[in-house]
Amino acid sequence: MRGPEARPRFGLSLRLLALTLVFVLLAEALVFLPAIGRARVVYLEQRLAEAHLALLALEATEDGMVDGDLQRRLLGHAGAVAMTAYQSGFFRLRLGPDMPPRVDAAYDLREVGLWPPVGDALMVLTRSQPRLIRVAGISPKDPRVAVEVTLPEAPLRRDLMRFARRLLGLSLIVSLIAGAVVYFSLARLLLKPLSRLVAAMRRFEAAPEDPGRLHTPSTARHEVGEAERTLARMQARVREGLIEHARLAGVGAAVARINHDLKGILTTARLESDRLEAQTRDRDPDLARTTEGIAQALDRAVALCAATLSYAGSELPSARPRRLAAHHELTLAAQRLHQAHPEIAVNLDCAVDTTLSADPDLLARSLDNLTHNAAQAGARHLTLAAHTSNHQTTLTIADDGPGLPQRARDNLFQPFAGSARNGGTGLGLPIARELTQAMNGHLNLHQTTPSGTTFHLTLPT
Q: InterPro entries from the entry (predicted)?
């Protein structure tokens, strides 16, 4: 029995926690990016509004002009280098130097989309060199007035940095809280029941015959509860099967010993029968015929004992499948059948390029069991065919025998119970199906009529 497997270094709980944090942080990032873009737009709109208020001071003067000291104070209050107001598309008011300063970039807030402000905000956060920018847009104070402001970018960067730090800090706190809530909820609803299932499986694996190790399922009506109940039913069936297997193994060992002794007794009786037949062949023909019948019955009994011993002592087949040519394998099966039963005519119906995946030895034994069964049932013609469909190759074994009786059909693949002829052991078809299943295939009775029987042996292509 294998020892307990080592627990994985990164269990499901740690992976679930990591995925929870990743998804929550991703959601926060999707919130952060539009927020930082919107913060930049709000900052610039505030500068436009302050610039408009500063320009309104010019309307209080007769000539629309102010002295240099007041102009510097108004520009400083608005955080601008120069500002201009337009109404109905015409110049109205202006503050700043006579020669407009050279700017590094210009932005128009009247043409703001969803993602361009995000990219511009990220560029501001990652750019360290000082720049002078020009911003134009509608005044928040008066939608009839358009304002154009020239201002340094450094204050905008400082404001966005403070906003980003506050938002990231809040996002991190929200992510940790949400991640913890989601993780502990999933741990309680999913991981804890799964851990119980794993522990129950390990307990059962250590001693499946012990009834005290059967899992007691919960009464929960969700999927995990159904999994627990299914596991409990499966464990009960496995335990019953193991107990039955142990009993059958004991019975089989006893039968094997009895068969071994019985085979010796029957062999001795067969020798005595042969000696008696030789002595009475000339003197008493009736007694010789009787002795011959006894000898034949003894032969069948010896054959049955040998088959029982062989079947009881055989191990489960181990397949080593490889790609085989179906036409070649069917040809070999036909040749082997001809050597044992030369009176049977075999017809091959298989394309040369048809392939299948099988163990050549196990496939040969399966085909031989099926073909020899057909010969022993009285067939005179046999058809071996192959065709491929849906990544599977089906081998067809069809004969023109008398068909299977109802008793044989009812116990078709049961050892010692499905023989269609007197004296048969009923092991051919069960062994053929066992060999086919070892190759990941299946053997089925396709049809049986008074004019013949057809079996399908299906294997991966």
A: 2C_sensor_his_kinase, HAMP_dom, HATPase_C_sf, HATPase_dom, His_kinase_dom, Sig_transdc_His_kin-like_C
- Are 343 and 381 in contact by the 8 Å Cβ rule? The answer is no
Give the mean pLDDT of 130-143: 89
Is 258 a residue whose pLDDT tops 80?
no
Domain ranges of the chain: 12-174, 223-313, 322-460
CA–CA separation, 335 vs 344, rounded Å? Answer: 11
Confidence at 422, pLDDT banded by 50, 70, 90 = low
Whether the Cβ atoms of residue 318 and residue 361 lie closer than 8 Å to each other: no
User: Higher-confidence residue: 268 or 218?
Assistant: 218
Structure tokens that stand for 169 in this block: 């800090």
Whether residue 330 contacts residue 350, with contact meaning beta carbons closer than 8 Å, is answered with yes
**Is the per-residue pLDDT at 327 higher than 90?**
yes
Which CATH number does the domain 322-460 belong to among 3.40.390.30, 3.30.565.10, 3.40.50.2000, 3.90.550.10?
3.30.565.10
Helix (H/G/I), strand (E/B), else coil: 401: coil
Q: Could you tell me the strand order of the sheet in which 90-95 lies?
A: 90-95, 82-87, 145-152, 132-138, 105-108
Phi then psi for 256, rounded to 5 degrees?
-60, -45
Alpha-carbon distances of 399 from 34, 300, 449, 450, rounded to whole Å: 77, 25, 10, 11
* CA–CA gap between residue 30 and residue 36 (Å, rounded): 11
Which of 235, 179, 226 has its CA nearest to residue 204?
235
What does the alpha-carbon distance between residue 200 and residue 208 come to, in Å, rounded to a whole number? 11
CA distances to 120, 256, 411, 424 from 415, rounded to whole Å, are: 81, 15, 8, 11
Element holding 29 (H helix, E strand)? helix 12-59
Instruction: State pLDDT tens for residues 42-63.
Output: 999 998 888 888 888 777 776 6
* 381-389 and 392-399 strand pairing: antiparallel
Per the prediction, the chain carries an average pLDDT of 81
Q: What is the C-alpha to C-alpha distance for residues 63 and 304, in angstroms, rounded to an integer?
A: 129
Which of 201, 209, 210, 205 has its CA nearest to residue 230? 201
In angstroms, the CA 270 to CA 35 distance is 100
**Long-range pairs of 53-60 with CB within 8 A, sequence gap ≥ 24:** 53/78, 53/141, 54/78, 54/80, 54/83, 54/95, 55/83, 55/84, 55/85, 55/92, 55/93, 55/94, 55/95, 55/147, 56/93, 58/93, 58/95, 59/93
